[in-house]
Amino acid sequence: MGWTKRQFVEQAFDDIGLAGYVFDLQPEQLQSALRKLDTMMATWNAQGIRLAYPLPSSPQDSDINQETDVPDSAYEAIYSNLAIRIASSFGKQVPVEVKATAKQAYNVLLQRATYPIEMQLPRTMPAGAGQKPWRIDDPFLPPPQNPVQTGSEGYLEPINVSNNNPY
User: Fold this and answer.
1) pLDDT value for 157
2) Average pLDDT over all residues of the chain
3) Which domains does the chain have, with CATH numbers?
4) How far apart are CA 85 and CA 5, in angstroms?
5) How far apart are CA 46 and CA 43, in angstroms?
6) Other beta carbons within 10 Å of 141
7) Would you call 102 exposed, middle or buried from its count of C-beta atoms within 10 A (0-12, 13-18, 19+)?
8) C-alpha span between 81 and 114 (Å, rounded)
């Protein structure tokens, strides 16, 4: 059972010194923080950090009590980075410890989201002596694969960049 969006928001408020047991958080404050949480997670999703966070189709569709399926290793990165994003809206300074924790936890997410690129040999490389012709039809190694993927959507198509203008 994962954390709810409310738990992430409340923990972020706790990190900047506005804990719910001391301060009564207004529904508008919770909704503002929820919008920032949703946009932060959408940005991470676009960067390739996919955490199974349920993104709403519009800000009005977001439910603060919705449970997330985010892995345990991502909790600290989410609420500490959210605390940094909401602190200025509430006139608070982010403690140095929270900034350090947010950076360290985000780096862990990046490490988990990236994999080393496998070495790919050219198509002209023979398969080797162990590959007998009666076992395979082609005596050469398969062609190199594009290592960049967009997740479950498939491969990322390269863009044609001419004159250093990607548009």
Assistant:
1) 52
2) 81
3) 5-113 (1.10.3230.20)
4) 15
5) 5
6) 16
7) buried
8) 20
What DSSP line would sit under the chain, residue for residue? ---BHHHHHHHHHHHTT--TTTS---HHHHHHHHHHHHHHHHHHHHTT--------SSGGG--TT-B----GGGHHHHHHHHHHHHHGGGT-PPPHHHHHHHHHHHHHHHHHH--PPPP---TTSB--TTS-TTT-S-SBPPPPPP--B-GGG-BPPPP--BTTB--
pLDDT at 97 exceeding the cut of 60? yes
End-to-end CA distance of the chain: 43
At residue 87, what is the residue type?
A: A
Tokens 């994003």 found at? 85
What is the pLDDT at residue 167? Answer: 42
**Are residues 99 and 83 in contact, defined by beta-carbon separation less than 8 angstroms?**
no
- Residue 31: CB atoms within 10 Å: 15
Q: Which residues contact 62 (CB under 8 A, 6 or more apart)?
A: 5, 34, 35, 38, 56
